[in-house]
Design brief:
Length: about 260
């Protein structure tokens, strides 16, 4: 099992489940056939693989994804001050996020076919944690929510975040899979669209270090607030990527388990 982030703040351990990607896939498939929608709050350092995992889950599960970073990148890309803050690795003001988050969550509840509601990047501050918990308290039928915390060591994060790229057209993600960059068939060109891949402006060594520091600082504050809620369940998910156990193989197994559940 990999080390958690070096110098990571000591968080209260109320772990219910500690698992690898395979274990997590099994947990997802073992969920009882519950007509109730379920909320998953994904928490993890930048570059720990949250977005990739959420994307894979969405291929097999009917779900609503509340992806704050994606929303900001797509919808607010033309607003210079927001873009600058994001490229600098700073968190945006809570007021910008909270109304959209609540509206998205509330809309998600009306689509009962989508059993999973996945929060990727929200909450990220104490104020946002209370916004979420207040909303949850007003929707008592939900019963509980799951906090899925991704743990990855710095080696994983640096390789993952500094080597990833995506297609500006189809949004396909190209991620490092075995400790080395995952190259497209033609280096730097999307396999499907034939256009140059792009890197995120905040995936530079300096900004990544800043984002990791901010994550540690903010997580230490808001995570205990979420976890101490009597309706919270917690899963610790350990991310790893080695030559012996490459990430693409783990993701393939993850997909296979979810596909089997759906009879695919
Ligand atoms: P992510 O894609 O989750 O790595 O987020 C990219 C950037 O979007 C972050 O570095 C922040 O600048 C901004 N951002 C994402 N989520 C939030 C949030 N919940 N609150 C404030 N800023 C956010």
């Amino acid at each position: 099992m990999l080390k958690v982030l070096r110098k990571a703040p000591q968080l209260r351990n109320i772990s219910k489940t500690a698992c690898t990607l395979t274990g997590f896939a099994k947990t997802l498939t073992q969920q009882e056939e519950d007509p109730q929608q379920e909320i998953f709050v994904f928490v993890g350092a930048p570059g720990s693989g949250k977005g990739t995992l959420v994307e894979v889950i969405s291929q097999f599960k009917e779900c609503t994804i509340l992806g704050v970073g994606e929303w900001l990148r797509e919808r607010k890309a033309n607003e210079t001050s927001i873009k600058n803050q994001m490229c600098n690795g700073e968190l945006l003001d809570d007021s910008l996020i909270k109304d959209w988050a609540i509206e998205t969550l509330t809309t998600a509840l009306t689509d009962k076919k989508k059993k999973m509601i996945i929060l990727d990047g929200f909450p990220r501050t104490i104020a946002q944690a209370y916004v979420f918990l207040n909303w949850f308290a007003e929707n008592k039928e939900l019963g509980h929510f799951s906090v899925v915390q991704l743990h990855a060591n710095l080696n994983f994060i640096e390789k993952y975040a500094l080597n990833r790229a995506s297609c500006p057209e189809c949004k396909k993600q190209y991620i490092p899979v075995d400790g080395s960059p995952f190259f497209s068939k033609i280096l730097g060109i999307c396999d499907d669209c034939g256009v140059p891949l792009e890197k995120r402006c905040d995936d530079t060594p300096e900004t990544l270090a800043k984002r990791i520091a901010l994550y540690r600082q903010e997580t230490a504050k808001f995570l205990p607030i979420l976890e101490s809620n009597p309706h919270a369940e917690k899963t610790n998910l350990y991310m790893s990527c080695t030559k012996e156990n490459p990430l693409d193989q783990q993701l393939a197994n993850f997909k296979q388990i979810l596909a089997n559940e759906n009879g695919i």
